[in-house]
Specification:
The chain is α+β, with helices and mostly antiparallel strands. It has 5 helices and 11 strands. The protein is about 30% helix and about 25% strand. The strands form 3 sheets. A 7-stranded mixed sheet has the order 4-3-7-6-5-10-11, sandwiched between helices. A two-stranded antiparallel sheet has the order 1-2.
Length: about 230
């Protein structure tokens, strides 16, 4: 940057000339302005970006029954990001905390129409669509955002173990453990728009809600969804 040249100007009627020099901004001030800007730009370029979420397992096709009484399968979730968990409504153990985390996540996600929550029961004989409707209503589940699925026991357990890779075990009627008859995973499972598992989160820990919401946001950015 050069220093602006001076120029001669004539004063009124006297005919005298005076030298007029534009005021130059000192380099010290320029540097004070430009250096912070350059620093911000450098950080934006050099700061390490979070790696993409791993692609883990593809969820197989399934056909179950939603609390509405309507059939629902994997195809209905195509193009959606979804978070799944496995519970049973009479659970004396962690299920209530898991449902509370899902309810918090529903509130956190707000109007994100491309995201669904999906709760599978591991006790389909008891957890009929009617029972699931009552349970969902009790926890403020929105019918258009949070789905509850029941159906054939073997199909649900097979889906849990072979698709989601989570534990689901029926300990029998005589089970006396703190979790009741059904031993099941307490994970929230994040699934992308293509039906691929992208992450597992502790479904009991309150801190997981923010982590899941951030992971959902990352998946939405993958296809420009938010």
């Amino acid at each position: 940057m050069g220093i602006p040249a001076c120029r001669a100007e004539r004063l009124g009627t006297s005919g005298a000339d005076k030298s007029v020099c534009p005021t130059a901004i000192p380099w010290s001030i320029v540097s004070l302005i430009l250096l912070p800007v350059a620093g911000v730009l450098a950080l934006a370029v050099l700061w390490p970006k979070s790696p993409p979420l791993p692609k883990l397992y593809s969820i197989p096709t399934f056909s179950l029954i939603e609390r509405s009484g309507e059939g629902l399968g994997l195809g209905a979730l195509k193009g959606k990001i979804w978070v799944a968990d496995f519970i049973f409504t009479t659970c004396p153990g962690p299920c209530l905390m898991m449902t509370q985390r899902m309810a918090e996540l529903q509130r956190r996600l707000g109007a994100a129409d491309d995201v669904r929550l999906v709760t599978f029961t591991v006790d389909p004989e008891h957890d009929t669509p009617e029972v699931l409707r009552e349970y969902a209503a009790r926890h403020g589940a929105r019918a258009d955002r949070w789905l509850f699925l029941t159906g054939d026991r073997a199909a649900i357990y097979d889906l849990a173990e072979k698709g989601f890779k989570v534990t689901t075990t029926d300990l029998g009627e005589g089970a006396t453990g703190p979790e009741g008859r059904y031993l099941h995973s307490t994970k929230m499972v994040l699934v992308d728009r293509d039906g691929v598992v992208r992450g597992y989160f502790d479904g009991v820990d309150p801190g997981s809600v923010g982590k899941v919401a951030s992971a959902v946001a990352a998946l939405r950015r993958e296809r420009g969804g938010g």
